[in-house]
Amino acid sequence: TRLILATRNAGKITELKAILADAGITHELVGAEAYPEIPDVKETGVTFAENALLKAHALARATGLPAVADDSGLCVDVLGGAPGIFSARWSGTHGNDQANLDLLLAQLLDIDTPHRGAHFTCAAALALPDGTERVVEGRLTGTLRRVPHGTNGFGYDPILQPEGDTRTCAELTPAEKNAISHRGKAFRALVPVVRELLG
Ligand code: ITT
Ligand code: NA
């Protein structure tokens, strides 16, 4: 049976397909781009979990199929957790990864702090057409580099260096990133729930 990936972010879809398949999920995984007639839901939540649930419910309701959604972002210690849930639109243009990253680096230069702690958070939500819902979270902690490195991944990957590594997330292979990432942790935690509710 089909499991909808309630996201239009190509970087997430690539990672989710690998994470869920590696965890033994055999459902046909179909991204939201297969349903262009379904409008994007307004992300009006104030937490990652709320936004992930909004996106999962919208797709499950509109398709009549189970849906999983990912709401995620980068939380910077010296910025009080910003960009956080606003990570995808930090520069003003939703989904402009380069502009978002450039603005964040400029803001950190302005602050000129040696404190470079940050983490990625991912909320992974599952919603069924009947309204059943579950949500779990995962985190990847590290430090922010001053200069972007690497070309793998997406978003803020070129500046986040995971704790215990000397490379940025964009210098990891996809398998290395998925093994430690916020998204990998959240969706691996969601897999038993998918099995319990979908079989
Ligand atoms: P959907 O709502 O369609 O899923 P989106 O890109 O709008 O796509 P979010 O609102 O969850 O999704 O925004 C997530 C942003 O956080 C994304 O644009 C990245 O900039 C950042 N982000 C999340 N996970 C990341 C990762 O693994 N590596 C780098 N940046 C990440
Ligand atoms: Na969001």
UniProtKB/TrEMBL annotation:
It catalyses: dITP + H2O = dIMP + diphosphate + H(+); ITP + H2O = IMP + diphosphate + H(+); XTP + H2O = XMP + diphosphate + H(+). It comes from the Bacteria. Substrate binds at residues 7-12, 72, 154-157, 177, 182-183. Its EC number is 3.6.1.66. Keywords: Hydrolase, Magnesium, Metal-binding, Nucleotide metabolism, Nucleotide-binding. The active site is at residue 71. Its cofactor is Mg(2+). It holds the Pfam family Ham1p_like. Binds 1 Mg(2+) ion per subunit. GO terms for biological process: nucleotide metabolic process; purine nucleoside triphosphate catabolic process. One of its GO terms (molecular function) is dITP diphosphatase activity. Mg(2+) binds at residue 71. GO terms for cellular component: cytosol. Signal peptide: none annotated. NCBIfam families: RdgB/HAM1 family non-canonical purine NTP pyrophosphatase. Homodimer. Pyrophosphatase that catalyzes the hydrolysis of nucleoside triphosphates to their monophosphate derivatives, with a high preference for the non-canonical purine nucleotides XTP (xanthosine triphosphate), dITP (deoxyinosine triphosphate) and ITP. Seems to function as a house-cleaning enzyme that removes non-canonical purine nucleotides from the nucleotide pool, thus preventing their incorporation into DNA/RNA and avoiding chromosomal lesions. Belongs to the HAM1 NTPase family. This is dITP/XTP pyrophosphatase. The gene is rdgB.
